[in-house]
Structures are given as structure tokens and as C-alpha cells.
Amino acid sequence: MKHLNSLLLKSDTWKEMLVDNQRMVSVSLSEVEQVLRLARMTPGLAKYEKALHQLSIFFDKAFALYRKEAPDELSELVALWERYSAAVLQRYTGVIAVELRAADHIVSNIFARFLAQVPNQNVAYAADVIPLVYGGEGGLSAYFTHPPDLDRPFAIINLPHSAFANVWQWLALPHEIGHDLYATIKGLDTELETALGDRMRKAVQDGEVKIPDIDFDLTPYGHGRSIKYSGGDFLAALWKGWANESQGDMMGLINCGGATIVGLQQIIGFGTGGMWRLRPGPDGGVRDEPEPHPVSYVRNALNIAGLRLLGQGHKELADEIEERFTALRPADTHVAFRFGRTRVDFARIEVGELVKSAQLAAEILLKQPLKVLGDKSYSQLATFTEEDQQKVDSLVEPLSRGDSTFASGAGIEARHALGATVLAFERDRANSHAINRCFKHFLV
Ligand SMILES: [Zn+2]
Questions:
Q1: Is 9 within the bounds of a domain?
Q2: Least confident piece of the model among 20-34, 46-60, 156-170, 271-285
Q3: How far is the CA of 135 from the centre of ligand 1 (A)?
Q4: How confident is the model at residue 366 (pLDDT cuts 50, 70, 90)?
Q5: 294 Cα: distance to centroid of ligand 1 (angstroms)
Q6: How far is the CA of 88 from the centre of ligand 1 (A)?
Q7: Mean pLDDT of the region 52-59
Q8: Residues 403, 438: contact at Cβ < 8 Å?
């Protein structure tokens, strides 16, 4: 070979080269350090300094470690670094200071309420952790939090730029915090998923929920086997797969109440489409699982059931939300779970039965005491009371009016103000500009 290296004809040398390629990824911590130095001289910004500095050290160490031990995963770390660095730069250059300050109030409020009560030995973060929001990418519904498997000192949450003038959709933030905590509280996922799975199996066994057995032949698709589930195992697999998203929704309810569902409906709608995934499994086999977001129709039912479980005081709002759900949902009798984006039905399940299972799931998610949470349930750690709803309601009118003191009353927390945004928007959409402006500027 004249132009090319013949060593790269061997697949192991080729792979080695690819790894070397990854290892060359380099980032400069200096730009962020400059900004931190400036921030240190600005009293109003100083409160983040310690935490941000801590995270800089984390990146420094993590890059060294990944370069040595896991170069093929470096690009994931770089993506996180880019977002962290955006968060720092956005804060300290004042580009979108107003939005981030408001978002910070919300996430700090919600983190503190929940985490402060979880036995700290089970939490991967420090007890006084301050989460960080940045203005990110992806369009109106692209709220997300960062990969939990990187052992970060705190949460980094994406607030889409496009949602800056849509503050009522920030009701997605508690849900994202839910994802973060789900990954950060060690063992929470397995314990909650086991509880959900057990309850669903029992429900099918006892005839509370009727789910048919599933037997899907993969032979025409090149795998000489079938995917088989008993009804109980199928319902268990469904809710275990949906557990993370579902508990994120519950985190919204226990912080902001029914307003969360009003915001959620704008994002997910009411449809009955379901997705099933096939992935390569061990020994050349395939693994199958549901797409992690519950089918929208069922997710509406889950949230409404959850709100009702938080107490009789929420009945009125829950009824109104349910009325909207009933009016706008499709007339479909079944949920068809399809493979990926194909039209191949993997399973067809009566939607009414899934709605029944959503009621049971809400009970487990909100009321089941969990060992990792110090033998408490989600709603025992933090809940949304009738008084909370009254506070939210009291903010709606001043918020629509653009009253700069709207959130300064005694006992008003950022989460109450957040809940009020979507109710103010419901009342009079013509005021959306005032709602956005007032919320972002005057959320104290
Ligand atoms: Zn989610």
C-alpha cells in the first residue's frame, strides 16, 4: 500500500485506531475558569462559585480517567461538558440571566423539598446540592436531564430556548428533576420497578385487570423464536419500562398539583399509539421492551388518578382535567403496540384495562413506602395539599395582571408560582405576554 497504512487492514488494529481517535478529544477548561474568576468579583453571582468550581474539578478528573479507562465513552462526557460550560457562560455573561434565575428558583425549591428527606447515604449528591439549568436545544418539548451514569456532583437540566416565552411549559421541570433523582437515589429504580411489577402481576392474577397472553412469532423477521408473555408478565414489563417516566410525572404532581397535568397535556396530547422496541440481546438473541414513555392516553389517566390520590381537595380540578381528557381523547378501544415506527402490531390491549392499571400504578408510585426513601412513599416525602392549591389559585389573577409582587406573599414558593402560570394562561391567553414577563422577572 502506497497511501494507506496496511496495518489498518486488520480489524483489531483498526479498532485500536478508532479508540486512539477518541482519546484525542480535548476540551479546554480555561474558558470556564476565566468566567468563574469574573463571577468571583461579582457579588450577586458568587453563590454558585463553590458548586461550579467543584464541577470543574469533576470534569478535569473525569476527562483524565475516561481518556485512560474508557476512551470510547469520551464523546458522551464531552457533550455533558459542553452543556455545563453553556450553563456557566450563560449565567455569568448575563445573556439569558432572567430565564435562568427563574428556572433556578424552581429547581432549587423542588430538589430541596424532596432530597432533604431522603436518607443521605442513599443519595449520590451532597445534601445541599444546587442543580443547574441551562438554555439548551431541541425545541419546545426537549426538556431533559443528564446521563446519570456519569457520577456528577449535581443535576444539569436542559430548558429549551424555544420555551423561554412559554413559561407554563416549564411545568416539565419537576418531571426532569424526577428523572434526575430516580438515577441519583441509589436503588430507587429497582425497588420501585419491583413494586410496580409485583402489583401488576397480582392484578392480572386476581382478575382486576384483564390482559391477554402475548405470543409473537419472530420467524418472518429472521429470528427463529417467539416473544411470549403471560398477561401478568406483559403488564409488569409495561409498567417497569414506564416506571421512570411515570415517577417523573408524580414528582410534578407532588410539587405543583393538577397544573402539571394541564401543562403535560399540551406536550403529549391524548393518543393511543404505543411503541415496542427490539434490541440485540445476549447470545445473538433479542430483548424487547416498551418505549419508556407511557402511551399518552394511559399517561393522562395515570396523572389524573395520581392527583385524586393526593386528596379530596383536588377533586374539582381533577374533574375538569378529566373532562378535557374525555373530550379530546380518540375513540379507540385498543392500544396497538407497534415495533418502532413500523406498522407491525406486537400486541393489542384494551385501553380501558390499561386505564385500570394506571390507577393501580398511581397508588404504588405515590403511596408505596420504599426502603431507600427511609421507608417512606413519594407522597410522604413531599406532597401537594389543598392549601398548596389555594396558594396557586391566589397567584393566577395577579400573574395575569403582571403584578410584580405576585409571588411575594407569605408561604409562597416557586413551585406555586409555576403552577399558577398554566392556569393564568388558561384563563386568558391574550395575557400570555404579561404572564411570561411577570413570571420570569418577578419570581423571587
Ligand atoms: Zn421524561
A1: no
A2: 20-34
A3: 18
A4: very high
A5: 10
A6: 24
A7: 78
A8: yes
Same domain, 172 and 81: yes
Q: Distance between CA atoms of 252 and 270, rounded to whole angstroms? A: 18
Query: What integer is the mean pLDDT of 316-322?
Result: 97
How far away, in angstroms, is 141 Cα from ligand 1 center?
10
Give the cell for residue 430.
Answer: 391574550
Residue 323 Cα to ligand 1 midpoint, Å, equals 24
State the pLDDT confidence band at 177, using cuts at 50, 70 and 90: very high
Three-state DSSP state, 215: strand
Q: Cell 390499561, residue?
A: 354
Q: Which long-range contacts link 388-395 to residues 24+ away (Cβ below 8 Å)? A: 388/257, 388/416, 388/419, 389/257, 389/258, 389/313, 389/314, 389/317, 391/416, 392/256, 392/257, 392/259, 392/416, 392/419, 392/420, 392/423, 393/420, 393/423, 395/419, 395/420, 395/424
Cell numbers found for residue 368: 408505596
Distance CA 404, CA 399 (A): 8
Residue recorded with cell 406483559: 234
Mean pLDDT of 231-255: 98
Range of the domain at 171: 16-184
- Claim to verify: residue 435 and residue 363 sit in the same structural domain: no
> Among 168, 100, 170, which Cα is nearest to 132's?
100
Q: How far, in Å, is the centroid of ligand 1 from the Cα of 318?
A: 22
- Please tell me the distance between residue 259's alpha carbon and the centre of ligand 1 in angstroms: 17
Identify whether residues 371 and 408 lie together within a single domain: no
CA of 180 to the centre of ligand 1 (A): 10
Give the total number of structural domains in the chain.
Answer: 3
Q: What is the pLDDT of residue 43?
A: 64
Of 396, 397, 288, 398, give the one whose Cα is nearest residue 346.
Answer: 288
Asked if residue 170 and residue 238 are part of one domain, the reply reads no
Nearest partner of 292 among 227, 342, 243, 252, judged by Cα: 243
Model confidence pLDDT, tens digit, residues 422-437: 999 999 899 999 999 9
Domain end, chosen from 125, 155, 184, is at: 184
What per-residue confidence (pLDDT) applies to 149? 63
What's the 429 CA to ligand 1 centre distance in angstroms? 27
Residue 394's region, left for phi above 0, alpha for psi from -120 to 50, else beta, is: alpha
| Beta-bridge partner residues of 274 | 337
Strand order in the sheet with 286-290: 286-290, 274-280, 334-339, 345-350
Q: What separation in Å is there between the alpha carbon of 16 and the centre of ligand 1?
A: 36
CA 240 / ligand 1 centre spacing (Å):
14
How many angstroms does the Cα of residue 292 sit away from the middle of ligand 1? 8
Alpha carbons 405 and 403: distance in angstroms, whole number: 5
* Helix/strand/coil for 383: coil
